[in-house]
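In response to reviewer comment 3 from the previous cycle, which asked for concrete evidence that the modeling workflow produces usable outputs, we include below a single protein chain processed end to end. The sequence was submitted unchanged, and the resulting structure tokens are shown without manual editing.
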Amino acid sequence: MQFEKQYNNSADSLKLKFLNGIIQHNANLQSAFVSFIQSEQKDTEVFPMKKFMEIVSMTKEKYQHDFEEVDFENPDWENYHAPHSGYIEDWKAYQQASEQEFEAIFNSFTSEAVNKILAQKPIELTAMLIGLYEATLDAEIEDDMGNFEDVNEHLLTEFISTTNAVTDKIKIAAISEKSVSTAFEKFAEYADSEYPGNLHFAGYFEHFLIALAEKSTNANQILSIIDKSGIERKSVPELILLLNKNSGNKTEWLQSATQFYRINKEVAKQLLQFYYESDELCFVKTANELFDTDKRFWAGFLKDFITVEFDRMLYINVFYQLVVDTYEISHYLKIREYLTENNLNKLLGEVTWNKVFQVRILEVEKRFESVKTIVEKNSDDWHYTEIIRPILGMYPEFCFQHIKNKAIKTIENQRGRDVYVRVSSWLKLTQDIPGFDVEKRDLITRLFNHKPNLPALKDEMRKAKLV
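The workflow returned the following structure tokens.
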């Protein structure tokens, strides 16, 4: 990464010069700096478990109460903001108003969490996140109107989003590592006390814990805390991989990666990158295994790694999947020479609903008769101009007559500015058809002088420079 290389190779005096430049007139940075220095200078904080659990309990009580105060039948209309100016059905408005009230509650938590980050209090922040999590699970909310399929599931989804937002703040903050280990200790102790044997609890906080762990230089200590607790490594595989990496233990890292890659895609991506750089055979074997489990996901990842030389069939399969998923002709061109006639026909069948892309493939293959058939069967397609354009020079008489009949029929049966814009675009196409000069002029004159008079059509024809 360019930043890491530049930062590591820069003198401390330059880094200090940069810090001085941005901190002098930024009150938030100044406050964060003071808190960081004070936290670094004082002795390691003794944080009783009783205090940690009290914060969890108080946070849960507060936010559970706030959640339960949301009244779906009488939402806060004064603070409701419609997402658009168009018509909104009543039931939708009630649902949106309730969602916005929940969102405001979570935003309030985020603001409080940021204050804890600035104040160098990651232990309290950890307890608060646990309390918020429990509030989302235990809130008892009546939903007689059926606004949500499951209210608590909605709250849990919002909790995850909020945790991600807090995690992003942690990542860009200067956190004193003295309190990081304590935060892990309290989290692990709470998990053992309140969620023994629960494989999912720690997973909800994994990315937050990763952000904290990145602030510590003692990865082995954090690993020890996890292993001494009841938290299973497989519930936080990305965290374990990070800690193995930061501890410098490559053997442990590889063991963890090979243990967890089937249950976690982020771990799998890291393992693939490792194999790509160190073991071609393992890369190909693992890539094939993973691709079969989720072709759409892994095609998007593997496209930057896989080559014909690595594995020809996997290469074809990856870019075949990308063609179907993304409709990018560049992906098709990568595998064109490797496809049999049966493969090509199968591919065309899989993209049949996207006529424009189907025509682009047929154009590459110079199968213009097939394009002509598509035009004949899809004269009312919204993308008519795009599907007929490739054959304007191949079948001039067919194309002119087809456009002429379509334009006349449309003008006879439809009205409106948008209609006239489309008709003008079709007439514009005829300029790329060789010959038929007299017929083109006659068609344009006929439509321009249509009776009854259509001023808007004339205007659009002028804009298209047809007259």
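The two ends are 57 Å apart (CA to CA). We consider this sufficient to address the reviewer's concern, and the full set will be provided in the supplementary archive.
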